[in-house]
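Researcher: Here's the sequence for the chain we discussed earlier.
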Amino acid sequence: MIRKVLPQNDSFRGVKILHDPVLNKGTAFTLEERQVLGLSGLLPPRIHTQKEQVTRVMENIRNKASDLDRYIYLIALQDRNENLFYRVVMDHIEELMPIIYTPTVGEACQLYGHIFRRSRGLYISLQDRGHIADILRNWPHGEARIIVVTDGERILGLGDLGADGMGIPVGKLALYTACAGIDPTACLPVTLDTGTNNRKLLKDPLYLGVEQERVRGDQYDEFIEEFIRASQQVFPNILIQLEDFANINAFPLLRKYRDRACLFDDDIQGTGSVALAGLYSAARITGSKLSDQKILFLGAGEAGIGIGDVISAALVNEGLSLSEARQRCWFVDSKGLIVADRGNLTEFKQRYAHEHPQVETFLEAVITLQPTAIVGVSGQPNSFSREVVEAMCRINSRPIIFALSNPTSKSECTAKEAYTWSAGQAVFASGSPFDPVELDGRTIVPGQGNNAYIFPGVGLGVLVSRATRATDEMFFEAAKALADQVLFEDLAKGRIYPSLNRIREVSAGIAEAVANVAYRNGLTEEERPADLVGAIQREMYYPDYPSYV
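Model: Thanks. This is the structure I predict for it:
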């Protein structure tokens, strides 16, 4: 994909170019470019290749004392030389994804007001009601194609971080570009500042948001409504990703807008899709089918219910009724097993409230229900205890154990614990990365059920097809496409997701599956290209420096 070229404006020369991260090439400007663009003397005389610049960046990153220092360094690079930032990340994706996203981005958000250097994206607060469209028009890159938006109330497993949650949209959109080749100038991070109930932040003089408690009810709803309408007005082809909204808002917002806008909630649909893909891959290891599974969840929020919904849709596709499909999914929340005779259940929990005696603890639920798989989305560290894992091993020769809570500090158990307590028999995946585990002379590579395997490819497929909606079927097909790209050598190592080094290839495959849903179901006015794979490849951004002369 061709990047933005220099404006046809004689005044856009010299330091103005060096201060534009989209155009800046740093020491890679050629001698002729320096002469023509008024850069002579503004740069050291030695001309470096982009590869040499990458070497310098990686040397600096590896010399930093902490992952947070590495995060700050990388964000500063993104602010001054976008092409180089993405070249570095793409060339070292396994090493750097945990820095620019989970788990390090969680720590960065907790300290966002203290490490703040330069603003990225758009902050829209309640004070901006009535002219949100005008604020969106301040976006400097023309037509945005993807917005990732948060109100900061449920950042990862860390809770309400208010406007300091901006690190999440920024990080997610960096993955859209690195993993699926969405042009970064088409990616718009947005934080909707509706206040915060985090007392520590409200007392912090360096907090970046408005100093008030969160608004609820009609005032909140009207604010969101204006934002959605304004986004569609200013950017007619926009895909909106809802990110890290609290349960009380996430489900209602998805239900309200999914048929009115090209919109999805990654914590619900993206998490569901990546977990479903993991179950497909795990079934290849255990020699079973999806319809053979009984899945017990710890946690019944956005992630858990989202996974249950996507699994249910997949089982319906295999021939089960919706009621039969939901019977395969059981949930334990803070009050115990969710069953039919429990009172005061929210609507989204009610659909998984089955007939069964009340069970108080997760371990008791494992022993009673005899699940083939347990999925942790609780944000409660160490909740998959040795007793739980050993109980799963008594029930299954190859127990499926997904500890998906983020960041790493919130994981229900570690990879080493799962493999050690199961004598290497667990089929394990986690939300944040864990190192390979040496056990009885073999190396087991844990899978990382990271949504980055799903949402970038979904976004690419929507953009290529110009789909008007992001549907559940797209996420179901994305899960199948992801699972289909897990190699036998991956499974032999214990890994149920592809290597991150193949992520752009994987995302392109997912984009093809998603685009086919749009073309098949009439969700676009575009005709399917004869060479859809070629069209996807042509859409993808590559961080090569352009020539300016």
